[in-house]
UniProtKB/TrEMBL annotation:
Pfam families: Hydrolase_3. Keywords: Hydrolase. One of its GO terms (cellular component) is cytosol. It comes from Paenibacillus xerothermodurans. One of its GO terms (molecular function) is magnesium ion binding. The keyword RNA-binding does not apply. This is Cof-type HAD-IIB family hydrolase. The keyword Ribosomal protein does not apply.
């Protein structure tokens, strides 16, 4: 599981993807809670680093006492829910997409800092995603509603129709297709690694002082950007090849295993 036998890194911050890493739907292992407590006992800062919104993560970071959350694939950074850094879409872009979705009969899920919004109720693709991975209920937009800053847009459409939204300017966005019928779009090429770097700059930390856990394709840049990138055993094969370490699966105490094997030295010494 270990790719490099030499681990001489003083870890000061650990970042965690959420779905498939910290938890599986509502299941969060007791071993993971113990591991987070151990890290905090050693003075290590914890951060969520997820494609989900700040709004969706509030209950989790409150429950686990994690102060920092890099959300919307890096486009929003919050400290105890308060915005520290944000990189929203232009309002013109969001409005254009809402009009386009109306013409093409697509459903959008728009991530703000405090709420999630949608242009259509009871979309079958949204309901399927809600069943598979869980989503909080979004606010239904009505004609004339003012839309706040939006940090991520999920379009429920196939890959061919995706082109209508990016208009041949894919380099302007970070695009992560997570289902044949659903795609994340983030502004200005933002992804988890860039968002985390903003947090590291704020905290005056170096990437070499950071460990990160992930399981999905939108964790690739994250795990490559830090000193200790750790792929979950239940993660994809491409991610495992890119990671420095591969731990056990989430449901086999993978986070606790990695914390004690690679982050906290034997005997509890850093």
């Amino acid at each position: 599981m270990q790719k490099n036998s030499e681990v001489n890194i003083m870890i000061k911050l650990v970042a965690f993807d959420v779905d498939g890493t910290l938890r599986d739907r509502e299941y969060l292992p007791k071993s993971t809670r113990r591991a987070l407590h151990t890290l905090k006992e050693h003075g290590i800062t914890l951060a969520l680093c997820t494609g989900r919104s700040e709004y969706e993560m509030k209950a989790l970071w409150t429950e686990l006492e994690i102060d920092w959350a890099v959300t919307c694939n890096g486009s929003h950074i919050g400290h105890q829910g308060k915005t520290v850094f944000d990189n929203p879409f232009s309002r013109e872009t969001v409005q254009d997409w809402l009009e386009l979705a109306e013409r093409l009969n697509h459903t959008l899920l728009l991530y703000g800092a405090e709420l999630m919004f949608t242009n259509r109720a009871n979309d079958p693709h949204f309901l399927q995603a809600q069943k598979e991975i869980g989503f909080m209920e979004p606010v239904l937009l009505k004609d004339g509603d003012e839309v706040p800053n939006i940090y991520q847009c999920i379009v429920f459409c196939n890959e061919e129709d995706e082109a209508h939204y990016v208009k041949g300017e894919r380099s302007r966005y970070y695009i992560h297709r997570w289902r044949p019928w659903a795609v994340d779009i983030n502004p200005n090429g933002m992804h988890k690694a860039l968002g985390l770097q903003k947090l590291l700059d704020h905290l005056n930390l170096m990437p070499q002082e950071v460990a990160a856990f992930g399981d999905g394709l939108n964790d690739l840049e994250l795990l490559e950007s830090v000193g200790m990138g750790i792929a979950m055993g239940n993660g994809g094969e491409l991610l495992k090849k890119k990671a420095r370490f591969v731990t056990k699966p989430l449901r086999e105490d993978g986070i606790e295993y990695a914390v004690h094997k690679w982050i906290i030295a034997p005997g509890g010494e850093l």
